[in-house]
Amino acid sequence: MKLKRIFQLIGLVLLVCAGTLGYLIWKELKGPTMGGNFSLTLRGSQWTFNEDAKKLNLIYFGYAKCPDVCPMSLSYVGTAFSKMSSEDLKKIRFLFVSVDHENDDPGNVADYATNFFPEFLGLSGSKKQIDDTIKLFPASYMVEKNPKSYLGYSIIHTDRVFILNKKGVVIDTIDSLRDSDVILQKIKEHI
Amino acid sequence: MKHRSALVRSLFTGLFLLSLGGFAAEDVKFMDARIFTPLKGSSVTAGYVEIENKSKSPRKIVLSSVEGFKAFETHETIEDAGKMSMKKVDEYTIAPESKLELKPGGKHLMLFDPIKKIADGDTLLVKFKIDGKEHSVQFKVIPRTETDHSHDHH
Ligand SMILES: [Cu+2]
């Protein structure tokens, strides 16, 4: 009767509440999902992640006029790639994203990335494209003016590689880029 | 007589100071001096070296010239919570009887805009001022990829 309907309704509301609460707790424990689709420039033409994604995608933010840290990190990643089988290489891609939109032109960035491994993609873009991309990841950059230096600036940036799945979701991070075997090990866990 | 002894004294003082100056350069040793071949797509590169101060006093080292580059600076890379920043420094100071290692991810000679072709195997003359006294060091140009595993000493 009427009372039964009310109890049914209360039950339903409780169920929905419990479900929502459970989902919120699960989401909280899991942490936020990072990553996503993004568009940048490869040698002057638009490059969109989800049109060209591989099973595993590694991404690093730096700049071509970085003389010390970027080439060191990139050479370790390059060495890790050179130790992989051609079978595994088909499933993986490395993206070097320049955050120096003022001084790096797309050709330079693309050339620069290939110094470390022939298949590395060097991407650049407008300030908006770069900012829209980097905010998807736990990474950042900051241009620091330095009139005392010949270059006039340097860029403070995150020195980490993020491992993305085919959808662009971050599934792991490589914090230490100072040992090609450690990098290779991380890659092999996911490939 | 008085004049002569003053002359002799200043002569000796001069000789003494000269020998001190000569000594100062001798007791600072440069090892593993290397510059990474400039990479395509970039106009900057870096140089690294290990410097040993064998003397009993601190030594100040200033970079005064680098062959083959339009500009050169002494820099230091600093890591803070996964973020890297780089700052320019005027000089490096080495404590008495200790070593200072310029290495990737730390202190480095930053070199801008090559003014000639620089290739693997070249040697470039780099001049420092050690407490004001000039000292030349030959730096070897090597490819970046060779330094995958931390540089071993020969
Ligand atoms: Cu620097």
Short recap of the structure:
The complex is a heterodimer of chains A (191) and B (154). Chain A is an alpha/beta fold.
Features of this protein?
heterodimer, A: 191 residues, alpha/beta, Glutaredoxin, 2 domains, five-stranded mixed β-sheet, two-stranded antiparallel ribbon, 9 strands, B: 154 residues, Immunoglobulin-like, 1 helix, 10 strands, globular, disordered C terminus
SSE layout and pairing:
The complex is a heterodimer of chains A (191) and B (154).
Chain A: H1 2-30, E1 39-42, E2 45-48, H2 49-52, E3 56-62, H3 69-82, H4 86-89, E4 92-98, H5 106-114, E5 121-123, H6 127-134, E6 141-145, E7 153-158, E8 161-164, E9 170-174, H7 180-190
Parallel strand pairs in A: 3-4, 4-5
Antiparallel strand pairs in A: 1-2, 3-8, 6-7, 8-9
Helix pairs in contact in A: 3-7
Chain B: H1 2-26, E1 28-36, E2 44-53, E3 59-66, E4 69-80, E5 83-89, E6 92-94, E7 98-101, E8 107-114, E9 123-130, E10 133-142
